[in-house]
Each structure stands twice: as C-alpha cells, then as structure tokens.
Amino acid sequence: MTAEFLSRLQFAFVISFHILFPAFSIGLASWLAFLEGVWLVKRTDLWRDLYFFWLKIFAVAFGMGVVSGIVMSFQFGTNWSGFSVVAGNVVGPLLNYEVLTAFFLEATFLGVMLFGWRKVSDRTHFIATCMVAIGTLISTFWIMSANSWMQTPAGFVIRDGVFFPDDWMKVIFNPSFPVRLPHMVMGAFISTAMVIGGVSAWYLLKGRFADKSRATLKLALAFLAIVIPLQIVIGDMSGLEVRENQPAKLAAIEARWETRSDVPLTLFAWPDEKAETNHYAVDVPRLGSVILTHSLHGEVKGLKDFPADQRPPVKIPFFSFRIMVGLGFAMLGLALIGLWRWRRGTLEKPWYLRAWVAMIPSGFIAVLTGWWVAEVGRQPWVVYGITRTAEAATPLPVSSVVASLITFVAVYLGIFGAGLYYLVKLFRTGPVAAPVKDAAAHQTPARPLSVPQETIEG
Predict the structure, then answer these.
(1) N or C terminus of the chain: which is more exposed, having fewer CB within 10 Å?
(2) Burial (CB count within 10 angstroms: exposed 0-12, middle 13-18, buried 19+), residue 27
(3) Is the Cβ–Cβ distance between 187 and 253 less than 8 Å?
(4) Contact by Cβ (8 Å): 419, 62
C-alpha cells in the first residue's frame, strides 16, 4: 500500500467513473441532432417528444461528465506532479486545445439547445444541437490524442529529462491515435444505442409509449447492425497497431509467455505470473496467429522476452479484453436476431425485449474494460517505454492519499448517486408530450429600454 499504488487506484476509480458519462453524452448529442433533424422534416409530435425526452437525459449526463472530468484533471497537480513536470509541455497544450475548441463550442451552444426552444427559430435551434454534437466529438479528438501520445509517444525531444514538442503534427497524430479515436467514438455510439434500445424495450414491455418506443428500438437495431461490424474491424486494426508499437501489452492481453509462431487463440485460462504459465487453458490451435498477425504461421512475442520490471500485469488486461470482446459479439447477436425478428414481424416478443433490457449496461461495461486493457496494459510506463509510472507520482504520505481516496469514493457515491437516481426518475417518466412552440416566440424582441409605439403616437 504505497502512495504510488493508492494514487493509481484513486485515478483508476475517478477515470472509470468519469468515462461512462462522456461516452453517453457523445452518443446522445449525435442522437439528438438526428432526432431534431427528423422532426424538422416530418414535424410530428412523436419526434419532438422524443427529442425533449432525450435532451433531459443528455443535460444530466453532460453535467455529471463535466464535473467528474474537472475533478480528474486536478490529480495531475496533486498526485501526479512528476508527470506534469516531465510531460506537461506536450500533454498540457493538448488538454488546453480541448478547452479552447470543444468546451467553448459546447458552452456557447448548450444554452441555446437547452433553453432556446421558444426563443430562436427552428433552424437556429437545430444548428445549436449540431454544434454541441460536433463539440463532443472535438473533445474526444483532443482527449484521445493526449492519451494516445502517452501510449505511443512521437514528435518530441527530451532535454534534461523533460519532454518538448518537436513536431506537433506527429504529437497529435501519433501512431496509435488514428485507430484509437474511431474505436472510442464507435464505442460511445454503441453504448448509447444499447441504452436507447433497452429503454425502448422496457417501455414496450410495460405497454407505454408504444409508437415512440417501437420507432427508437428499430433505429437502435439498425444502427447496431451496421456499426458493431465496423467496430470489430477497427478493433482488429487496433490489435495490429498494438502488436507493432506495444508488444508487451499484446503479450499480456493474450497471456502469451513464449515467443512463437503458430500461436493458438486462448479463449480462457488462469494466468500465473509467478510461474509464467497459464492454468486451465482452453486454446484454439493457430487461430491466434491468424487474428493477431493475419498469417497462419505469424509470430507473436511472449512476455519472457521482456525484463520482469517492464511487463504489465497480466490478469486485468487478459480478462478485461475477453469481457469486452464477448460483450461486443453478444450485442451483435442481439442486433442480428432483432433484424431477423423484425423481418418476420415478431420483434416485440417478451423474451427478446427482456434480453434488450438486460443488455442495457453492456456497452458501458465494454468501454470500461477496454480502457482497463489500454491503461493497465501500458504499465509500468506512464509514457510508454520512456517514463515509468513510479517516476510520475507525487511523493505524498500514504495517509494523505488514503484520506483523499476515501473522500472521493464517499463524495462520488453521494453526489453522483443522486444524479443517477434522477436519471432513473426521468426514464420512468418517459417521453411525455413536449412543450409546443408559440409561432411568434422567436420573433425579434423589443429593444431594451425602448418606448412602446402607442406612447410615441400619443
């Protein structure tokens, strides 16, 4: 129980909690833009009601994401001052670009989106919604660029142990970034679609909002059937990138100890890091080489090729990766079965709707386990291959980190527990009738301190 370990545990808790809300709000913002776009074309109450219902959900999720993100960034100064000193010249500007571009864009148009329905024209309100959606994607761009640089650093020079940017294009578009960015965005979209479909299925089971729920369930189904196969392809590309740039991480993900060709795919095992072997392994011969190298006889490096103090922990990446992939295929199966039942006209069978409800958290769990694979698999480095995590930690007393960790857990459970409770209440209320816009509401208001026309005439 060192201060470094507790600081890592604290950061893991905060970021694991935080990432769920941006993943949800990224998908919801684009979903809201879609809903309002359809409403502008069809002008029916169904689409307006759906827009306002999900707008309330977005507002709560967005707020909790912003608050938890601010708290997380404070730890760079409190618990990880060593990282700030050596890598602040590179990571600091990337995070500032996120504030100057995405956050300002979101803040500018969010007020119009939330409160301007009766104040501005339909087209202006739709543009505001689109700007917020674009802002969430820009935010994802910069955050993923900073994190990817820590995974595959590029475009820098080191002087006196400190990183200095040498080529910003190489810093931003580092080797892992082009693959990790779409992988994260697709993961956010899939997580949101699972919630939309699951909530719709729950309403159908309860016999509520049938027309609205039927429409959104079919949209979620069609979206997942298209996007999840794309995510599988992007995930495969990400695996090839990890093999190229972070071979020790790949060895941990696959619990591969010996370097060899004709590698089997290990479906399940219990990795034993002390004995450097796997117990109870269930292997599929040669399939590992096919998947990891796209060659029947491809070679994969084993953990024994790396010094013991440069190997990541094995169990967390190994099991997290299998949970993520397993849930991905389960979601794909749910969508494909839904398409088949949709075609047969039996989409609303109770057992199928219950399966959707049970799968609501699956997208978030997949995102969370994917982050654990990426971050734990990067260890023992905070900047891969250059700066160790132990060197980045602030030398704090253990008691101080224990106190802050307990405080974080207590505050998060209290405040964000209340936020989650409110989200559940909104879901229980459902997409009720939304406010109707007054035709004259968006006309230009009177100038401040202007005199009424009748007074002038008098």
Answers:
(1) C
(2) buried
(3) no
(4) no
Task: Please count the other Cβ atoms lying within 10 Å of the Cβ belonging to residue 354.
Answer: 13
User: In 246-361, which ranges are continuous DSSP H helix?
Assistant: 247-253, 287-293, 315-344, 350-358
DSSP string, 302-330: -GGGS-GGGPPPSHHHHHHHHHHHHHHHH
The C-alpha atoms of residue 288 and residue 265 are separated, in whole angstroms, by 4
CB 74 within 8 Å of CB 67: no
Report percent pLDDT > 90 for the chain.
Answer: 50
What does DSSP say about strands 381-383 and 387-388: parallel, antiparallel, or unpaired? antiparallel
Using alpha carbons only, what angle is made at residue 119 by residues 117 and 124, rounded to the nearest 5 degrees? 70
User: What is the value of pTM for the model shown?
Assistant: 0.89
Structure tokens at 351: 């057992």
CB distance 303 to 273 below 8 Å: no
Report d(CA 187, CA 179) in Å as an integer.
12
Q: At what angle do helices 362-378 and 177-206 cross, to 10 degrees?
A: 160
**3-class SS at 207?**
coil
* SS3 call for 137: helix
pLDDT tens digits along 423-457: 889 899 888 877 776 654 444 444 444 444 443 34
Please state the rounded mean pLDDT for residues 273-296: 88
The structure tokens listed for 321 are 């990766």
| Alpha-carbon span 215 to 228, nearest angstrom | 20
Listed ranges 117-126, 256-265, 354-363, 424-433; the one with the highest mean pLDDT: 354-363
